[in-house]
Amino acid sequence: MKINDIVKGFKVEKVVESEELKATAYYLTHIKTKAQLLYLDRDDDNKTFSIGFKTIPTDSTGVFHILEHSVLNGSERYPLKEPFVDLLKSSLNTFLNAMTFPDKTVYPVSSRNDKDFKNLTRVYLDAVFNPLCLKNENIFRQEGWHYELNDKDEPIICKGVVYNEMKGAYSTAESMVNELLLNALFSDNCYQYSSGGNPDFIPELTYEDFKEAHSKYYHPTNSMIFLDGKMNVEEILEIINDEYLNKYSESNEIYSIEKQKPVVRDVLLREFAVPANSDINNKALASFGFGLADYNDYEVSIAFQIIANILAENNESVLVKAILEKGLAENVTIGVETFLLQPSLFILANNTNKENYDEIVLTIKEVLTKVVKEGLNKEELIANLNKMEFTNKERDFGYAPKGIIYNILALSSWNYGGDPLDGLCNESIYKSLREKIDTDYFEKLIEKYLLNPTHYASVLMVPSTTIEVQKQKELEKQLADYKATLSKQEIEDLVAFNRQLVEWQSSEDTAEVKAMLPTLELSDIDEKPAEIEKEITEVDKITVISYAPEAEGITYGGLYFNVEDLSLEDCQNLAVVFKLMTELPSKNHSTSELARIRNTYLGSFNVSNTLVAHEHNDGYKHLATVTYSCLDNNNEKALEIVKEHLYNLLFNDEKVVLNVLKQGKAMMEMEISMAGHSYAGNRAMASASEFATVKEVMSGYSFYNYVKELITNFNSEKLEKLQNVYNSVFTKNRLTLSVMSAQKEDVTQNILKAIKEDNNPIIKTDREVMAKANEGITVASPVGYAAMTANVRDNIKDIKGNLAVVNKVLGLDYLWNEIRAKGGAYGCGVSSKAGNIMFYSFRDPNPRRSIDVYKATNNYLDNFYKNVDRIDNYIIGTIGDSDPLLTAKTKISTGNAEYFAGLTYQDKCAVRTQILTTTKEDFLKIKEVFKKVNEEGSVCVVGGANLLEQCRDIIDKTLDL
Questions:
Q1: How far is CA 841 from the centre of its chain?
Q2: Burial of 2 (0-12, 13-18, 19+ CB in 10 A)
Q3: What pLDDT score was predicted for residue 249?
Q4: Which of 423, 536, 706, 718 is most exposed, with minimal Cβ within 10 Å?
Q5: Cβ neighbours, 10 Å, residue 110
Q6: Do 836 and 687 touch, CB atoms closer than 8 A?
C-alpha cells in the first residue's frame, strides 16, 4: 500500500517505517465515515484486531463498563446469548476480551490462525455495531443491575455482574484510592466520575440511558481501529468496510475531553471498611495526586517515571526512607498514570494513622526540597534510564500478546488526537533524557509539578469497623423503602420479571442459532502440539537446560536450587527471604546501591518459590528460583550482581526486616480481599497432598499468619534463622541451570564458577500434610470467593486430555451460567492442576449457593450427555488453551516447568490426542472424578461476616486477618 491508495473503502494517508517497532505503519482513513485505522505490518504470525471508542462518562453509573459487558452478549448476525463465551469455548484465540478505561472502551482480539482471526474480527464488529442488548433488556439487567425478587414476601436485593464486580473493587482502600484522586484532581471533566461504576450509583442507570450511550458513542466516526501482524490486510479491510462501516455515513458529532483547569483541593476524608474485630491502628492511607503536563509531553511523563523510581523504589529510597524512619507509615509507593489526557503522579503512604497526615505532607516537602537543592543522584538517573531502555528493547509482555499491548499504548496518544506511534516509540525520548542527566532538568520538574503544584489534591482514607455493616443496613433499608412504594401489581410484575429473566438465562440457543457463529473445524487443528525446543546437557555434573536465543542481544539466566530437604518452618523462612532479597544491604553495597547497580546492568532480577508436580507420579520438585536478564554485553557484570545477592546479603538489621514484613503483610491483606479465590483455593487444597501443603505454607493464608506472628514476636533468633536458610540454599549441589543466550557456553561456565560448592547430599524431608478442614476467612467485603477442591491424581492420570475438555464445558457453560449469569458473580471456573480439581468463584454475592452449584456438577453432566450431540467446539477451544502464545520469557519458564515435571513432548502429544478424540461417553467416565470432589473435597470461603454466616453449615471454623 502507498500513500493516497484507495484500498477497500480506506484511503492510505501516511506510511511510516519504524525501526524501533520493526514494523511498517500504515495510517488509513475510512472514506465514507472518517473512521481511523492503524495497521502495523510486522513479522508476527499472531494477528491482532481491535476497535476502540472514545467513551466519556457524565456520571458514575458505569454505563460504558456495562456496555462493554453487554454488547458481547449476542448481535444481529450472531444472535447467540453469549457469543463471547462461545468463542472462548471454540476458538484458537490468543487474546479475547474487552476493556473499559476512564475515557475509552477497547475490544481487542488476536489469533495465529487466519480463519479464526477473521471469525473473531467479524463477531467483534457485529457485537459493537449491532448488539442485541439494545433490543433485549434482559442482557442489560443481567450484566448491569436489576432488582431481584423471587417471592412477594422476600426482601428485594440488587444484583448484576458489573454491580458485584464493582462492589468487590470498592472493598479495599488501595483499590479505591486512585479513582478518588482522579475524582478530586479532575472535578470538571469526565475523570471526576467512576468509569467502572460506583455501586452506589449503578442502580441509577436506566435502560434508556444505556441505549442512548451506545447510539451516541459506538459510531464508526468515533472509532479507532487497530491491526497488527502478518495478514492479508486487504481481506480484513474488505470485511471491515463491506460488512460494517460502509452501512454508515460520517457523523457530525465529534467528542472531545475537556481539559481540566489546574485546581488545588484540600484533603478529602473518606472511610473504608475493615472487619469488625480488626485493629485499626496503622490502617489509614494518605494519598497525594499531582497533575502533570499534557498527554503529548511524553518526555515529562517518562522523566517522572524515572523520578518516581528514584524516590520510592525500595525502603532505602529517599522518600520512603524518610517516612519510615519517622514511623509515619509502613510503606510508600509512587505511580505515574499516563493513560489520560492529563497524566498524573500519585504518592501513597500506606498503613499510617490519621494523626500522621500533616507530618507526612511536611516530610514529602522536606525531601523534595532537599532533592531539588542537592540534585538527584546522577548514577541513579542513568540506572533507571538503562532499565527503561532495556524494557523498550525487549518488548516482552509475558503472556499478553505484543499486538494487544501495542494497541493500548497507541491509544494513549491516539484517543486525544495525537499520533498513535508517539505512544509506542520512545527511543528518541530516552536519548533526549540521557542528554539532560547532567543538567537540572529533572530537579526543575520536581520543583514545578511537585513542590509548587498548581494542580494538586489529596485523599485521606481511614479504616472503619462499622461502615460495612452500616452500608449494608442502609442498602437494605433503601431497598425495603423502595419495595414499600410498590403496589401489589408492581410487586407481582417484579416477581414475574425475575422469573422470566431466570427462564431466559436458563434457555439454550437453538441448533440453528448456534450454527450462525463462525467456527473452526477439527480439520483446521494441528494434530501435534507446538514443541518447545530445548537442549538438556550436563556440564560439570550440573544439568543445563538451554534454548536458542530469540531476543536479539539479550541473555536470560535461570538458577533453580533444589530445596526439598527444608522443613515446613524453613520453607516459610525461605519465603520470607525471597521478600527480603531486593530490600537488604550486602557486605559491599547499601540497599540503594544494589538497586542502582541492578537497574544499570540487569533487565530483570527475580527470586521466587517454584513448585512443580511430577507428571507421572505423586512426587514434586520444590525449587528456589533465581532468574535474571541482561544485555549480552553486560553478562559478566550481571553475574557479579547476581552473586552479590546470593551470598553477601546482611540479615542483621531488625528494623529493616520488620519494615519489609509489615509491607508484605499489608499486601497479602489486600490480595486476600481483592483476589480471595486463590487464597481460598490454596487453603482448601492444603490437606490434599504434601505439594499442596507446601504451597499453602509458602504463599497462602498460613504464610500470612506466619508473617503476622514474626512481626508480633520478632527477635534476633528469628533473624538468625533467616540468615541460616539464606546461607544454605544457593549451592551447586542443588543447582539446575537454564540459559537462553548467544553466549551460552561462556554464560554457563561463568555461572557455574560463581556458585558456592557444597558436597552434602540433598535428602528429601517428609513434610507433614495439613489436616483437612472446611474454613472461612473473614474480610470486609460485600462479595466473596468460594473454593472447593480435592486431589484426584490417581483418578485422572490416563484421562487428562478428556478432563480438560470437560472442564471447558463446565467452566463456560454450567458454572458461567449458574454462578455468573444467574448468580451475579464476576467470575467463576474449574481447573485441574498438579492432580487437583479446584472450583472457584470470584466477587461472588452468594458463595454459599456457589458451593451447591459445584456439588451438582454430575447432574449437569448427565443432562449434557443426554442433550448435546457434538462437542467439536469445546475440543477446539481446549486445544487453544493447551497451546498458548509464548514469548522468549514464557517459552523458557514453560519449557523449564516441563523438564522439572518430567513432561515429554510424547506426553503432550498423548494429551493432545486425548483432547482431539474426546467423546460424550468420556463425560460419563469423568463423573467419578467429580463424585470424589463432592464427597472428599474441602471448602474455603473468603468474604464478609454476613456471607460467612450464610456458610456456617459447610465451614468448620472461621479465620481472621
A1: 16
A2: exposed
A3: 96
A4: 536
A5: 26
A6: no
Determine the Cα–Cα distance for residues 357 and 460; give it in Å rounded to an integer.
Answer: 8
Closest CA to 202 of 230, 164, 172, 244: 164
Q: Please give the distance of CA 804 from its chain centroid, rounded to a whole number.
A: 23
- Give tens-digit pLDDT for 580-597: 999 999 999 999 999 999
What pLDDT does residue 407 have? 98
Separation of alpha carbons 890 and 293, rounded Å? 36
Cα separation, 455 vs 449, in Å, equals: 8
Kind and range of the H or E run holding 89: helix 83-90
Give the position of cell 553466549. 743
Q: Phi, psi at residue 660, to the nearest 5°?
A: -65, -40
Taking alpha carbons only, the member of 603, 566, 598, 559 closest to residue 582 is 598
Give the CA distances from residue 681 to residues 439, 840, 842, 849, in Å, rounded to whole numbers and listed in that order: 53, 7, 11, 17
**CA dihedral over 22, 24, 25, 30, signed as positive or negative:** negative
Going by C-alpha positions, the residue among 138, 896, 154 that lies closest to residue 535 is 896
What is the rounded CA–CA span in Å between residue 888 and residue 556? Answer: 9
Residues 460/284, Cβ–Cβ less than 8 Å: yes
Mean pLDDT of the chain: 95
At 278 the pLDDT is: 85
Which candidate, 184, 150, 681, 234, places its Cα nearest to that of 461? 184
Q: Is 231 helix (H, G, I), strand (E, B) or coil?
A: coil
- Alpha helices (runs of H) in 232-297, residue ranges in sequence order: 233-243
Report the alpha-carbon distance of residue 202 to residue 631 in Å, rounded. 49
Contacts 24+ apart (CB under 8 A), 726-731: 726/577, 726/649, 726/651, 729/561, 729/563, 729/574, 729/577, 729/624, 730/559, 730/561, 730/624, 730/626, 730/646, 730/647, 730/755, 730/756, 731/561, 731/755, 731/756, 731/757, 731/758
How many Å apart are CA 684 and CA 676, to the nearest integer?
Answer: 12
Mean pLDDT of the 188-196 span: 95
Which residue in the block uniquely carries the three cell numbers 422476600? 154
Q: Encode 56-86 in three state secondary structure.
A: CCCCCCCHHHHHHHHCCCCECCCCCCCHHHH
Nearest to 625 by CA among 892, 908, 399: 892
Radius of gyration, CA atoms only, the chain: 28
List pLDDT tens digits, range 194-245: 999 999 999 999 999 999 999 999 999 999 999 999 999 999 999 999 999 9
> What does the alpha-carbon distance between residue 853 and residue 859 come to, in Å, rounded to a whole number?
10
Question: In the numeric block, which cell numbers belong to residue 813?
Answer: 457453560
φ, ψ for residue 176 (rounded to 5)?
Answer: -100, -25
What confidence tens digit (pLDDT) does each residue in 157-184 have? Answer: 999 999 999 999 888 888 889 899 999 9
Determine contact, residues 72/51, Cβ cutoff 8 Å. no
Continuous segment of H or E residues that includes residue 508: none
Burial 913-951 (b: 16+ CB within 10 A, else e): ebbbebeeebbeebbebbebbeeebbbbbbbbbebbeeb
Give residue-wise pLDDT tens across range 873-884.
999 999 999 999
- Which secondary structure element, helix H or strand E, spans residue 119, and what is its range? helix 114-129
Per DSSP bridges, beta strands 344-352 and 284-291 are: antiparallel
Beta-bridge mates of residue 703? none
